[in-house]
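ok posting inputs for the guanosine-5'-triphosphate job
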Amino acid sequence: MKGQVVKVISDKFFVKVADEVIACKERGNLRHMKTLPLVGDFVSIDKEKGVINEILPRSNMLIRPNVANITQAFVVTSFKNPDFSTNLLDKLLVQLEINKIKPVICLTKRDLISDEEYLKYKETIDYYKKIGYLVLENTEIKKIKQVLEGEMTVFTGQTGAGKSTLLNHLFKDLNLKVGEVSLALGRGRHTTRHIEILEKDKIKVLDTPGFSALSFLDYKKEDVRNAFIEFQNYPCIYKDCMHDKEAECNVKKAVNSGLILKSRYENYLSLIKEFEGWKW
Ligand SMILES: Nc1nc2c(ncn2[C@@H]2O[C@H](COP(=O)(O)OP(=O)(O)OP(=O)(O)O)[C@@H](O)[C@H]2O)c(=O)[nH]1
Ligand SMILES: [Mg+2]
Ligand SMILES: [Zn+2]
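and the output
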């Protein structure tokens, strides 16, 4: 019998088969495998014994949050409280591009900034739209529902950005716990603690605990470079140019002439720096 892992709590794996959720212990064949089932995994189970026998092949998996078979990610980004950060946004976009998960940028807390402040961010936001990302605000509920339909969407973003709040708006009967930002940020605590697939109509979403840091050492630096999708519009003479040191680099030229957003390039350089002194 096949189903999907919708929740993991300590050593219990909750598997949804049709309209039923069955609590399973992983056992049998899985004991010999290196990997445990993740939320999002399609598995075959023995319902009578309450065990998972097999994890079906994954289309992808993320490390943080630790989930599998995601088709789309909402990168929830607040204007304020916590402050808007292109650094975090770019890091998340890179992780998603590398894992071939479609990103949607979802902005929150516009109500906490003035129109004047918003203008400061507009150029940045328009840039992300220009290079091909869908950018929405958390108030556009109807549009958001359309974008979620038929996808397995993970909600990711900094702690306090408003992931659970938005999900509560989308699913009125959900009542996810929502936290005070000051407490969450100040103590490094997260309001959302475990990962669970929530399903309604044709929408499947995953609320996840926010994070404050991501590591990229699991990737190759060429993958990180390729994940900055707009760089490919400015091909360099050297096919393997890392766009950092070469003088005749077309990406650097595009940055200098304002075609590539400065913060994107700076975030790229700081990500590439993380690799220095590592492995190679
Ligand atoms: N003013 C305003 N407050 C918001 C908005 N969205 C969320 N909040 C508030 O922000 C705080 C944090 O929201 P949560 O939904 O718990 O944030 P989260 O992203 O789920 O945080 P973690 O679960 O810790 O990762 C709560 O007090 C919400 O009421 C918004 O659009 N405007
Ligand atoms: Mg939350
Ligand atoms: Zn270059």
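notes: Residues 236, 241, 243, 246, 249-251 surround zinc ion (ligand 3) (CB under 6 Å). The mean pLDDT is 87.
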